[in-house]
Amino acid sequence: MPIKYLKRGKPESDRALDEGKTKSVVEATLKDIEARGDLAVRELSEKFDRYSPPSFRLTVSEIEAIVSKVPRQEMTDIQFAHDQVCKFARAQRDALHDIEIETLPGVFLGHRNIPVQSVGCYVPAGKFPMVASAHMSVATAKVANVPRIVAATPPFNGEPNPGVIAAIAMGGAHEIYVLGGIQAIGAMALGTELIEPVHMLVGPGNVFVAEAKRQLFGRVGIDLFAGPTETMVIADESACDAEMCATDLLGQAEHGYNSPCTLITNSHNLAANTLKEIDRLLEILPTAETARVSWKEYGEVIVCDNHSEMLDVANDIASEHVQVMTDRDDWFLENLHSYGALFLGPRTNVANGDKVIGTNHTLPTRKAGRYTGGLWVGKYIKTHSYQRIVTDEAAANIAQYGSRLCMLEGFVGHAEQCNVRVRRYGKLNFIQYISPKSFPAFCFCSGSNRHQTL
Asked: Relative to the CA of 165, which of 74, 274, 315, 373 has its CA 20 to 30 Å away?
């Protein structure tokens, strides 16, 4: 029996139309920022955030004054979340090792893990002050030993949000700018008269922020291609109830008006009851105005015949957040291969992952989980290889193979790089290299600085 959709979301064609409009706006805005720099950035901030301070960069004294407004309990909570994120990030960093091995006598190969030299961290705060995003981007970059960490966050209700600024400062940002949207992304990536450009951009944001990062990729690095928040609940009747499923779906739908949320189950009864619970919760949820739109246009309920079918559908959708509440959670952990992050069992939930438990909440969306994981300390690390040959015998030996393989491909100049090593370091008196018909064969004599065409 084919899978059943008790509810479908907005057609893909309509979603593509929305994305096309966003692309055009972002492209024009980035061109304006590149052409007019700080002036364009200020005009955009005035237009979209009604915010135009003497300087968008906070001074040390301004940071201290803003952070002093954070109540003691809130600061304690921010510190706790910061510590959890850093604890996990340090464990991940410790798993990355520089290596060097001797592959042949006298031939040493290795790699070094080197941090990106500058990173721009975007911390959303326009609609909701995303305190947790500062931990995920800034603090993780600090653990990775990035030398220059720039943070940008929009004003919240016309001024810097104290909790967000506290988390950014606690994370170790070297520069903090109160800037949002495309203007923040463009300024950090392209640079302005006052802001030196960074090498990499990280952090979540709205559709305009995500599209700006996409268009700038290549000019700078990015953490991943991210779209609106997505959540998926994989559930059967053994481990949870309709209220829990509905709560976990709407808990992420409140992020924005286009946040996909999907229930996959093998229980028609659980699916129907979850739909009823969602209707009930939308009558009392304070953020229902946003969540209702997401659920109406992007919510889906899929009923499958069995767990294997549920697995296949989940891997195909490749959702950002996947909440698994079944009688075989470990089986899903072992067999799910395309997702952002897993939350296993009814005691676990996506909100803990978003805010405090320690794993990173910047995760792949729009099926990107098929080829990448989320932001982690390793995203800030570049792994660079190196080679070292320490004996004459090794140099001549490798060069013989290298020369012949270069000539096989027709690269004569490449081959000569190898040949000169044979002449310098080899003990052979005569080496003949057979080339393609379009190239001559060469004869090299030990100790000679020249080659002769045969």
From this structure: 373
Please indicate, yes or no, whether residues 259 and 289 belong to a single structural domain of this protein: yes
State the pLDDT at residue 437.
43
Does the pLDDT of residue 430 top 50, yes or no?
A: no
Helix 38-49 vs helix 181-190: angle between axes, to the nearest 10 degrees?
Answer: 160
CA angle, 203 then 209 then 214, to 5°: 85
pTM of the predicted structure, to 2 decimals: 0.89
Q: Which residues are identified as catalytic?
A: 320-321
Segment 243-283, tens digit of pLDDT: 999 999 999 999 888 899 999 999 999 999 999 999 999 99
The answer to whether 350 touches 252, Cβ cutoff 8 Å, is yes
* Ramachandran class of 382: left when φ > 0, alpha when ψ lies in -120 to 50, beta otherwise: beta
Write the DSSP symbol of residue 59: P
Q: Which domain does 245 fall in, by range? A: 228-374
Cβ atoms of residues 175 and 150 within 8 Å:
yes
211 and 284 inside one domain: no
Termini Cα distance of the chain: 73
Choose among 339, 359, 338: nearest CA to 348: 359
Q: Are 357 and 429 in a shared domain?
A: no
State the residue for tokens 């997401």.
294
Write out pLDDT tens, residues 314-359.
999 999 999 999 999 999 999 999 999 999 999 999 999 999 999 9
Residue with token string 């510190």: 79
Integer Rg of the chain from CA: 28
Number of domains the chain is built from = 3
Of 422, 396, 392, 397, nearest in space to 442 by CA: 422
Nearest to 299 by CA among 327, 328, 346, 263: 263
Distance (Å, rounded) from C-alpha 206 to C-alpha 224?
14
Cα 212 to Cα 22: distance, rounded to the nearest angstrom: 9
Strands (E), 125-277: 148-152, 175-177, 200-202, 221-222, 231-235, 261-265
Distance CA 228, CA 124 (A): 13
CATH number for the domain including 152?
A: 3.40.50.1980
Q: Is the dihedral of CA 394, 395, 397, 402 positive or negative?
A: positive
